[in-house]
Amino acid sequence: MTTIASPVQDPVRRRNGTPRRGLPRKDQNGDTLIEILIAVVLLSFAVIAVVDSLTTTVVSASSHRTQTRLTTLLKTFAEQVTSRVQVGTGYIVCGSAAAYNAAFGPSPGDGTEIPPPGYNGYAETVASVSYWVTGTAYRAGSYAPTCSTDTGLQVLTLSVAAPASAGGASDTITVIVRNPTWTASYAGT
Amino acid sequence: MLLALIFLVAISLVVVALATQTTNNVKNSVALKGQRSLEFGANSATEIAVQQARYEYSVPSGPNACLSGLPVNGTTFAVTCSTTYNPASASTRVVAFYTCSSGSCGPSNNLVAAQVSFNDYSAAGIDSCSVATTASCGTGMAVNSWVLSTASN
User: Fold this and answer.
1) Percent of chain A having pLDDT more than 70?
2) What Rg value do the Cα atoms of chain B yield, rounded?
3) With left for phi above 0 and alpha for psi between -120 and 50, is residue B105 left, alpha or beta?
4) Do B36 and A39 lie within an 8 Å CB cutoff?
5) Contact criterion met (CB < 8 Å) for B56 and A189
């Protein structure tokens, strides 16, 4: 008597080929540990990149905000100085930096100056004054740190500084002002 | 694998966008600062030229160099002057100033274009402003126009 071997029964499928209910499909193999680790590492790189970019953007935005405020304040201050000089009330003959700072009043924030509100802690100063010196060649002028004879031209270095809470940055600009009421003539020219 | 690549590409785009925005901010800040310095420098150079022209006798002439090689705020400026002489007038000399930082300054190439009238008559009505004497040069002065056009330069 021969025995016919029955076909090998697939444990996860019925004889008609349909998957057995409640049993895993044959192609549902799980991920290996290596694959998961690689995925985690890739995700970590991505997250680090995004967080780092956001941090850099936030920090640079804060820095730019301070720089922009300094730029605005410095331009306002320079306009204020040149305007006062042009109308004849701002030029100080042989004036020192201290004299200009006293004349241009207190720092902004007290409501008496041109810079708009919100600039508390920012300081604007005339950092230094140089005096235009004319040479015998007349046009060959140069700057001098001390004033012997005021020739009607001064070089003002204006400075603004942010408070320490805003990074303490500063900015400077040079403006040359002309005394509109100066009446002397150049000797020997 | 495909999803991972898409994810990485998306993240890369976000990072690039943020970096681009930051770079643009820096460039804008630097450009604004440079523009401000250029404006005040050009005005300063013109002020010097005006002051110098006021108290000297300037021969009526076409464009000639009033000032050159003047460094202000990191930029070197030059000023070209063109003088018109009007004897027997309170606007004895009308001088056009053209300030630029490079090339040849003129009506079509300038950072500042200013026109200033100088009165060379003394209070006694005598014009003592000549090659021989500058006694009454620039006793009065009026700025007729002062045009800053750094945006186009």
Assistant:
1) 70
2) 25
3) beta
4) no
5) yes
